[in-house]
Amino acid sequence: MNNFQEGQYTSYIYSLIKDQNYLEAIKILNIQLEVNPRSRAALSLLGYCNYLTGNYGVSADMYEQLLKYYPEVTEYRMYYSQSLYKAELYDEALRASNAIDKPEFIHQRSMMQFAIKYQKNDLVESVKILNNSYADRQDTAICQGCVLYREGKYEEAKSKFEDARKLGESPDVEYNIGVCCYKMKLLSAAHTCIQNILEQAAKSHPEIVLQSRMDNEGLRGNTASSPALL
């Protein structure tokens, strides 16, 4: 990497990230961080890459350092809270989210705090947060459906997820509807949801359909990544 000029170096790092070669990017960025421990670019990209590789604790550390140097950047507070949440450090994530005060991030903060309370099975506080959130947002409707589902109110949860679907197609929403149908023993409707998920996946990832055809014809292929694409 010593032979790379600065512009080429940056281009190379971003090409690795674009190709989802996060581990190689992390290795190079760690070297850069040793040279310049306060490098905003290195810290930010290390936070991003570690998050995507499931190293949530390391990701949180990167964003915590960024907040020391750039406390005015609210996005870093949001990413810090998200990383702590994914690391299952719920109390720390909640404290971090409380520091998010810019109006444009209030809804995201509410959704983060809902997720924390929901994971801790504190449904009373979860509902209070939702009652103070934007009612016309898809993520609010999804969260409301999740609470109803956990309460065993599958028909009401299904209705709420269907409201969310009206605000935009999503495999996650379709899956939630399907699970509710399954719980209600509406097996035909649940199967329809599975078909809808596959159709949506085929639009975004046509290689899944191609692979399925290859498998049906007896051809060998690597399908290990297909479930993750859904």
Describe this structure as you would to a colleague.
The protein is mainly alpha-helical and 230 residues long. It has a domain at 134-214: Serine Threonine Protein Phosphatase 5, Tetratricopeptide repeat. Helix content is 74%, strand content 0%. It has 14 helices and no strands. The protein has helices at 6-18, 22-35, 40-52, 56-69, 74-86, 90-98, 106-119, 123-131, 138-150, 154-166, 171-183, 187-204, 206-216, 226-229. The protein is globular and about 60 Å long. The two termini are 36 Å apart. Mean pLDDT is 87; it is low at 212-230.
Radius of gyration: 21 Å
CATH class of the domain at 134-214: Mainly Alpha
Tell me the CATH superfamily of the domain at 134-214. Tetratricopeptide repeat domain
Which spans have pLDDT < 50 for at least 5 consecutive residues? 212-230
CATH-assigned fold name of the domain at 134-214:
Serine Threonine Protein Phosphatase 5, Tetratricopeptide repeat
Secondary structure blueprint with pairings:
Elements lengths: L5 H13 L3 H14 L4 H13 L3 H14 L4 H13 L3 H9 L7 H14 L3 H9 L6 H13 L3 H13 L4 H13 L3 H18 L1 H11 L9 H4 L1
Helix pairs in contact: 1-2, 2-3, 3-4, 4-5, 5-6, 5-7, 6-7, 7-8, 7-9, 8-9, 9-10, 10-11, 11-12, 12-13
